[in-house]
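Consider a concrete sample entry:
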Amino acid sequence: MKKREFKSSSKRVLDLMINSIYTNKEIFLRELISNASDALDKLSYLSLTNKDLDASNPKIFIERDEKERKLIIKDNGIGMDEEELENNLGTIAESGSLKFKESQEKDSEIIGQFGVGFYSAFMVSKKVEVLTRKAGSEDAYLWTSEGVDGYTLEKTRKDKPGTEITLYLKDDQEDEDYSTFLDEYTIRRIVKKYSDYIRYPINMDVENSRLKEGSDKEYETYVEEVTLNSMIPLWKKDKKSITEEEYNNFYTSKFMDMENPLHVIHNNVEGLVEYKSMLFIPSHAPFDYYYKEYKKGLELYTNGVLIMDKCEELLPDYYSFVKGVVDSDDLSLNISRETLQNDRKVIAIAKSLETKIHNELLTMLKEEPDKYKKFFDAFGTQIKYGVYDMYGANKDKLKDLLMFYSGNKKELITLDQYVSDMPKSQKEIYYACGESYDKIDSLPQIEQVKNKKFDVLYLTGNVDEFALQVLEKYDDKPFKNVSDNTLDLETKEEKENTKKANEESKDMLDFMKESLNGEVVDVRLTNKISSHPVFLSTQGVISTQMEKVFNAMPIDNGQKAELILEINENHPIVDKLKKLYDKDKDKLKDYSKILYSEARLIEGLPLDNPTEISNLICDLISK
């Protein structure tokens, strides 16, 4: 036995490998299991042309020794000879798997390619032993290392080909409990999380209890060997052979949801970039979906090994509700296999997934409208954010997915449905904003549009109007808020009569405007409403609904709607106002404030002086 130094290495390099490359210590088990899987793959591949090699009953076995603080990972794979031990373990970043993969056909599925995964064992171990015997050889070797000081290599005996890696765990520290890696449930969790779909069984002896034979009260413990992993990923199976129940069970267990998914998208893509994916659209939004802590992303696998559990790059924000897995051998990973490198293939997969999700949603909308409405109830707000976000960069691709409540049909409809139902005389798409459908339905401004038999879209979400403003128009039909003062639905005669009425009452209207101390930009008479006395319209791009959204923000950005108080010229209140202007201007001031407050309440805007208005109303009632 001779002490040897690591080739191409130094204390600094090994420290980097152990302490800097991996962010999560539990990754070591994933790496060692992946190496064992590689060894089994190599034996299986070589046995196809070498009948002397036995690749039957492949298995990975994990053995725990809590007393000696040892964790052992065994496999009956290809094993290594002395030269391979020197090259693969004596030289850091020398990957036998990569060399093997480069020398074989493309279909050889080898996971490890960097040659540093093995050294992650030193994150949790004070000493590592590798006992190995190459298939087809009688010679076995023991490689031992305690880290940066080098390693020893000696010839020994081993009954069967394969490799055993023994980790002598570090002593527990105040901030690190290394003993947890000997715990049965911790090992089960790590294997399930990272290596559940390794194609070979990963076994371990576990303790169970049972009633003693002949007793109905006394229990005994016994040890049995169990398989910890599922082995065959559901997404690699033929879609035709997978039942709805299997999809549902996979989703609910994998993503911790009590409800079955609303829709499944199972895809196998071949070409310049190859990948398999199984995506799920949930039936409801998770409780934290609209909180900043929510993190989107798909689980990313390579040959059944979990690389990332939240790969954000694969989903745009407007499809962040999608759950699922992607498995590809074509991605460039960083040296620790924990994160993706910047790679055009990643972008290509992301675009392909986005297109697939988009097309599936359009198909659902067309063929299963009730199902789509359920989806939109849950995630429609996110689609609207996608339209509005980035100054409308994605509005054209998302506009056909939008739905809004129809005042005529009393249900959600698409913009395409709205335009298709428009009478020829209608030139614009009308909408109104409010806190609820019922409140919008009672708005005075809607009367004129309803009288024309035109439909109105009812917008109740904070982002709704912002999304429509970014869209600007749909099918060359511009969007128009019914509260916009430029709404033009009167006849020529009606316009002339209103113009004349405003000219005749100009002094009174100016006085009322002044009485409101700059709260409105104008006070005018209107014929746009028939039964209500007053309403508020706006001029400019900021509506009352936008003002409400801005006011709800934690900072005051000074955004306010330019309000116009419009008074029904045919309402009896107008005669009262005229008399007050002639005989009691002080009372007209009070009436102006009350009417303006009325209009604000109808619009769902707060009152700056509710006590004053209450007192004014009480004074009027008592006289």
